[in-house]
Amino acid sequence: MQLEPYLFFHGKCEEALNFYKKCLGGEITSINRFAGSPMESDVDAAFRDKVMHASFVADGVQFMASDGRPGAPPDGEDDIALSLATSDPAEGERVFNALAEGGQVTMPLSDVFWGGRFGSLTDRYGVQWMVSVHG
User: Fold this and answer.
1) Is the pTM of this model over 0.85?
2) Domain end: 53, 72, 91, which one?
């Protein structure tokens, strides 16, 4: 299993990624926008060009990022989540259910349009988790 931080930039994700690229000498390895995704119709037209998901890599640094949910202002409480990735479906299910015990599931672990399975939750200690099972 692999652990990566997931950062939310509330409408300034691309700007932040370019800043970190300059500072850390890294690169944006993938960037997906709401436009063209199955969620395109769920967001306001002004938010469709925002970053739904991106990955960043530099020497010794790796994280994922997003503009987050439309209309969600930065509050410092939900700007970072921890993302766990595995290729073992049973392990992904076990870890998701264990972390969810006593917490709150925000998206059940289920099949997703980009492939594999994905779910998110806040554990009993207030830590946000994302679990991805790659097929």
Assistant:
1) no
2) 72
